[in-house]
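Hypothesis: this fold can be encoded by more than one sequence.
Test: take the structure tokens below, design a sequence, compare later.
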């Protein structure tokens, strides 16, 4: 018996070879979260899927699941089409987008919906596709959205230890275990308070902030805590690219 899913809004995070002609896709869907999907025949030269199953492109997918698939927690791709077309991010923005994909693959449990985070990802990838768009503000804004969606970001207007309201003129560090705590080496209370808004507002604020490097260190510390000891491959590539461009 084959069970068909309703149409899903999705992005391909990664593709793996499954056979000489097929792929296994790691996809992020708005309705069902992260899924493993077999795209049979997708590697054949005549397959229409070759031009559709691209990363950082919004897709509409039709999936099916057999009894055998249920045991392996895998879906079969029945149909795929573009949901919205925009240019693929280029250069540093493309590396930044792959970094987002790796974060999602490492931190999201399969088959758990994250519709708000999916929308944040879609907005971020669209922004990164614009030529000349600075990637850093959007990366930080997305990292905030990711931590928030997973319940790892504390309230940004309260000292997590004292429960006192944040003071714009003081500095606060972000601890993975304690939350926001007063620290001379932290980020200003003014910036934390300004980052309470939606994704686009956060990115706009960070585009003009002189504290981006401090915020980057704070967010990466929390992400590293939850990622464990295995480093992100995309982050290493980003560092190498930065070093080459700076030399």
């Amino acid at each position: 018996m084959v069970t068909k899913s309703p149409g899903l809004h999705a992005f391909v995070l990664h593709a793996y070879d499954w056979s000489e002609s097929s792929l296994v896709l790691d996809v992020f869907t708005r309705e069902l979260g992260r899924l493993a999907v077999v795209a049979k025949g997708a590697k054949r030269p005549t397959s229409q899927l070759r031009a559709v199953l691209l990363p950082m492109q919004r897709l509409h997918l039709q999936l099916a699941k057999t009894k055998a698939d249920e045991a392996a927690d895998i879906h079969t791709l029945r149909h795929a089409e573009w949901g919205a077309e925009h240019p693929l991010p280029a250069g540093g923005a493309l590396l930044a987008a792959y970094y987002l994909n790796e974060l999602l693959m490492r931190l999201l449990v399969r088959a758990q919906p994250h519709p708000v985070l999916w929308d944040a990802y879609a907005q971020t990838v669209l922004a990164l596709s614009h030529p000349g768009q600075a990637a850093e503000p959007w990366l930080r804004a997305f990292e905030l959205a990711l931590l928030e969606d997973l319940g790892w970001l504390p309230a940004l207007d309260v000292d997590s230890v004292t429960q006192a309201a944040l003071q714009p003129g003081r500095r606060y560090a972000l601890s993975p275990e304690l939350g926001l705590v007063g620290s001379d080496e932290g980020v200003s209370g003014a910036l934390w308070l300004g980052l309470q808004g939606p994704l686009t507002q956060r990115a706009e604020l960070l585009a003009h902030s002189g504290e981006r490097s401090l915020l980057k260190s704070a967010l990466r510390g929390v992400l590293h805590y939850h990622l464990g000891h295995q480093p992100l491959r995309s982050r290493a590539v980003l560092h190498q690219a930065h070093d080459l461009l700076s030399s």
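The chain is about 40% helix and 25% strand. The domain at 92-246 is CATH 1.20.1440.120 (de novo design (two linked rop proteins)).
Hypothesis status: open.
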